[in-house]
């Protein structure tokens, strides 16, 4: 990392939901399929907007006239995992903003790239056994011209995000390497890259009848 | 669903970390890359075992002599999202159990299939902006014989899990359909299927130079 200082956690204390701004714990009582009453513990975001969707991630494809097609990943210190993570650019969807608007805005802020959304997933669940948090995956295309300078990021105060461009043909191997080097790779990005790799290695499995 | 009763949440109340068995909220104080002290709110599992990995998911490939290659998905009511979810079989890793052992055990319990782990991912992070929860993806092969009866599940008391076999060639479209029908699709499974689909639709992007 080029950061002059290595971020680190200096204290970790219990947090009552009432004092939390972003997250909360809840206990759900529910009737299961056999009619029995059960309980389940849930971690939720307090910030879920009107759309009911928390976040958007930008599965991005960077096209360049003379460089191999690539994707831009972001590297940042993430206190929840106490490590630098490897993720696709992503962010929370603001109130009154669509997933697609948030995708274009966040990609620009985090990477400087201006992209076009070509598809949007349904709202999918990050970890449905534990949290209500959900997100949409927007696939975004970025078309660069020859000789165009690397764009500037437009980060908010306190955001320290590094970018790294990875050729798509090497994505899976690079994620494996990042993990060996001590970075924490985001599960969703890893699964996309693993799906790509599986389809390339086993094309016969996916042939339509 | 074939369940006689539709599960539903009857109450949702704030839960102090001290009373929770499975999850907790914490406040991390940390030094960022510019040397400034900041705070971050984190939801964690209380159950993370010695291995430091919470869960394993089984990306499974079912081979059959006369049927198209498929994958088995599980459908269950998930209180955190108040809906039936579509996921790959998955479970928490028990203490003193490897990810691979948990994968074989959980696949058998949830689906009845006996599988062989062919690869294991690094520990990847479910939602690193919010939680420390992590998991490994085990790819598992299941080889069935002609005429073999559908195996029985071996569910724990209170587990109500339905299985559905989906041909791999239709996986992405079926996930989109499930979402339209009101099921909540797990983000990791969706990303894998989306990666497969992207590689099939855009093979030129992934060619090695």
TrEMBL record, chains A, B:
Domain of life where this protein originates: Eukaryota
Keywords annotated in UniProt: Hydrolase
Record domain Nudix hydrolase: where: 53-188
PANTHER family xref list: ADP-RIBOSE DIPHOSPHATASE, UDP/ADP-SUGAR PYROPHOSPHATASE
Signal peptide boundaries: none
Hydrolase recorded as keyword: yes
Pfam families for this protein: NUDIX (PF00293)
GO biological process: nucleoside phosphate metabolic process; ribose phosphate metabolic process
MF term (GO), any: ADP-ribose diphosphatase activity
Protein name: Nudix hydrolase domain-containing protein
Keyword Disulfide bond part of the UniProt annotation: no
Any one cellular-component term (Gene Ontology): nucleus
Organism: Setomelanomma holmii
InterPro entries in UniProt: NUDIX_hydrolase-like_dom_sf (IPR015797), NUDIX_hydrolase_CS (IPR020084), NUDIX_hydrolase_dom (IPR000086)
């Amino acid at each position: 990392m080029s950061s002059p200082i290595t971020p680190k956690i200096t204290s970790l204390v219990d947090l009552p939901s009432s004092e939390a701004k972003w997250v909360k714990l809840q206990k759900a009582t529910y009737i299961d399929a056999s009619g029995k009453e059960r309980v389940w513990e849930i971690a939720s975001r307090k910030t879920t907007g009107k759309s009911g969707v928390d976040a958007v991630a930008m599965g991005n494809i960077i096209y360049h006239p003379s460089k191999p097609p690539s994707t831009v990943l972001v590297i940042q210190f993430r206190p929840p995992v106490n490590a630098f993570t490897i993720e696709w650019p992503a962010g929370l969807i603001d109130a009154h903003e669509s997933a697609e608007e948030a995708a274009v805005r966040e990609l620009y802020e985090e990477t400087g790239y201006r992209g076009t959304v070509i598809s949007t997933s349904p709202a999918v669940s990050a970890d449905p056994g534990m949290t209500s948090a959900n997100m949409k995956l927007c696939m975004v295309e970025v078309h660069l011209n020859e000789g165009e300078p690397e764009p500037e990021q437009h980060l908010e105060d306190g955001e320290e995000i590094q970018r790294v461009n990875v050729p798509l043909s090497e994505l899976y191997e690079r994620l494996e390497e990042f993990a060996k080097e001590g970075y924490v790779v985001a599960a969703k990005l890893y699964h996309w890259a693993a799906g790509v790799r599986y389809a390339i290695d086993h094309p016969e499995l996916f042939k339509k009848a």
